[in-house]
Amino acid sequence: MKKSYLFVLVSLMIVMSVVLGACAPAATPEPAAEAPAEAPVVATEVPATEVPAPVAIRYWHTMSDAEAAKLDEVIAAFEAANPGITVEATRYAYGDFKTAILTAIAGGDVPDTARMDIAWVSEFASQGALMQLDGAMPDFDTIAASVFPGPLSTNKWDGHYYGLPQNTNTQVLVYNKASFEAAGIAAAPTTMEEFATVACALTDTAKGTYGFAEGGTYFWAPAPIFYAMGGKVTDPEITTATGYVNSAESVAAFTMLKDLYDKGCLSPNLLGGGIATDAGQGTGIYGMIIDGPWMVDIYKGNYPDLKYDFALIPAGPNGTSSVVGGEDVVILGGSKNAEAAQKWVSYLMSVDTQKALAQVGVMPTIASLTGDASLPAYFGIFMEQLKTAQARVPSPKWSDMDNAINNAYQRILKGEQAPQAALDQAAAEIDALLVK
Amino acid sequence: MSQTTRSEKKRNQILPAIIFLIPGFTLLFVFFLGPLLYSFRISFYQWNFAHPDRSVFVGLANYITQLTNPIFHRAILNTFAYTLITVSLKMVLGFFVALVLNQKIPARSFFRVAYYLPVITSWVIVSLLFMYMFSGMGGLVNYFLKDVLHVISKNIMWLADPILALIPVILVDIWKGVGWATVIFLSGLQSIPMELLEAAEVDGASPWQRLIKIILPLMRGTIVFLIVVLLLGGLNSYVPFQLITHGNPMDQTHSILTLMYRATFTRMDFGNGAAISYLLTLFVFALSIIQLKLLNKPIGE
């Protein structure tokens, strides 16, 4: 009898512990809100009179092995140039990173700086979790003027900048040269019509090969084709999606993908439960994929014998295009060492640092570095693609918008809705998000 | 005289009792009740996690958003279907495995260990293994169905279908959970006095009659305990859903907790996350009351 109550209690605790996990850190958020206002005052007054106490800047990131090793060199150089400031870098897995930052903010114990996905900056900024950099950081204007405008725009929220583009990337066509030779195709497709033809020419149902594969249905995957076909998600002012995400161009992009899927030229893996794009291309199953500069490292490590090459995204009616990716470096609102954090951010944005990290495959954002002889040769095609690549909608509602398009794409592929009807529904869903 | 000394004695016992309870209650309040109430408050706000003072009170809006959301409805349906199927199959399979392992069969210890091994393996690894087994391209399950048994002519895209995608989720839970149910059933079986069974055998009761008339009634406590714990575990299911389906396709394969996680940590909407938690709590609470009623009946009658 008593036991039963105990078990009910224990089980209720299981449920509650989940609630706790989500919300317990929020219990002490007040210091985080007040700290930034006071901290800089202390920091500026002390050094004038006596030896500054050593300041430790925390920097959170999601770098790869090679990048993290290079970062250690960058940190050593920064510390040598800025005595009294040390940098403690912490590395996270991408999948855990948002949760980690969120928990830190809610708990009031934040890292001073972080390198986060460009799609997150407006989300965090809209909650007041990031420090406004324009007007606060002495050399903000100089740095902002030196970087590509596309990546910079991802830091803008409500008229102000809350970060700087630390690195950028985009997706291009990656094709397996052996598959192309076997099918007697001489060169990568340059137009969308050619692309569709080549995708089916590379497909062999008997052998189980597919001409083209996407990693999933989340927006990032079809985005290069979507943008190259002239698709848009919202108007530039981000007020409505109707007439944009369901425009004739947007519908044409998804119709083309649906046709490829129905003909068996687009691998069914994108709906879940299939062979990943890198493994598929590495083993000769997928002829073409669309992916980013990190593929060089992945293929070097996993498929060293693979013969592949890059090409621009095939041109749609208005030429080629793709999607801008990358990461922004931000200073968190709760940082107690904002002044030192600004120095670290400036250092990360310096030409030397950008060149150093470029050696391990991180693409710089400083415009003057385009064509620089010290950059890896394969950056050329990505730099070229970046000229026409478009940023995803910089809105705190982006993850919901992404989900709306993702679900529309799945309904289209499964034949539950025609492309027009599915995108009309996505437009209505996104409009509802923009009203709030 | 004796009356007063007794009450004095009682009073003398109360103070130390309170002192001994304080640490426990403090921990309970700081780490359990306090945050519980705090998140209850969050569920009524459009919560700003960076600046709670900027949060906007929205009344029941978060609850209404969830209760009118078809994705949430589907998540409830998934969670309940999953719980019902996994609990009943784990109970039935666990009971029969326990019956077999309770006999004097060869290599009994080996089988006991073998059935318990899945219980202590990592959820994450096992979930990913099942995901690969049910892969639509080159998965083991498709290979057996198509190339070995020739039941299907073309690969099934298990994870691309809102119903089929739940099969690996359910199977992994059953595979992993049977061993635990078996252990509990075994301990229940071993607490049944051998004399009863021997006496029944002498009286000419068939094995079936012994099962129905003696073993099951005497195991009522064990059975109810298992139902309670397994049901609550099922309703709180998160890992297999999150790792195998991610809610795909079309947000049709969420469990209540994967939706809660997404609301809170992907969409940074703590208010809706807290509202989902409290809605789940409500279901669990209602279920607990029903179960308490069941438990209040005397055992073994």
Write the layout of secondary structure elements.
The complex is a heterodimer of chains A (436) and B (301).
Chain A: H1 2-23, H2 30-49, E1 55-61, H3 65-81, E2 85-91, H4 94-107, E3 113-117, H5 121-126, H6 140-146, H7 149-153, E4 156-157, E5 160-161, E6 164-170, E7 172-176, H8 177-182, H9 192-201, E8 210-213, H10 223-228, H11 248-262, H12 277-282, E9 286-291, H13 295-302, E10 308-311, E11 324-331, H14 338-348, H15 351-358, H16 379-386, H17 398-413, H18 419-435
Parallel strand pairs in A: 1-2, 1-3, 8-9
Antiparallel strand pairs in A: 3-11, 4-5, 6-11, 7-9, 7-10
Chain B: H1 2-42, E1 45-46, E2 56-57, H2 61-67, H3 70-101, H4 108-120, H5 123-133, H6 140-148, H7 166-190, H8 194-202, H9 207-218, H10 220-235, H11 239-245, H12 256-266, H13 270-295
Antiparallel strand pairs in B: 1-2
Helix pairs in contact in B: 2-13, 3-7, 3-10, 4-7, 5-7, 5-11, 7-10, 7-11, 8-9, 10-13, 12-13
Model description:
- The complex is a heterodimer of chains A (436) and B (301).
- Chain A is an alpha/beta fold and 436 residues long.
- Chain A has 18 helices and 11 strands.
- Helix content of chain A is 46%, strand content 13%.
- A 5-stranded mixed β-sheet of chain A has the order 2-1-3-11-6. Chain A has a 4-stranded mixed β-sheet with strand order 8-9-7-10. A two-stranded antiparallel sheet of chain A has the order 4-5.
- Chain A is globular, with a radius of gyration of 24 Å.
- The relative contact order of chain A is 0.16.
- Chain B is mainly alpha-helical and 301 residues long.
- Chain B has a single domain, classed as MetI-like fold, CATH 1.10.3720.
- Helices cover 73% and strands 1% of the residues of chain B.
- Chain B has 13 helices and 2 strands.
- Chain B has helices at 2-42, 61-67, 70-101, 108-120, 123-133, 140-148, 166-190, 194-202, 207-218, 220-235, 239-245, 256-266, 270-295, and strands spanning 45-46, 56-57.
- Chain B has a two-stranded antiparallel ribbon with strand order 1-2.
- The longest helix of chain B is centred in the N-terminal third of the chain and has 41 residues, at 2-42.
- Chain B is flat, with a radius of gyration of 25 Å.
- Chain B starts with a helix and ends in a 6-residue tail after the last helix.
- Classes of the chains: A alpha/beta (436), B mainly alpha (301).
- The interface between A and B is large, with 53 and 64 residues.
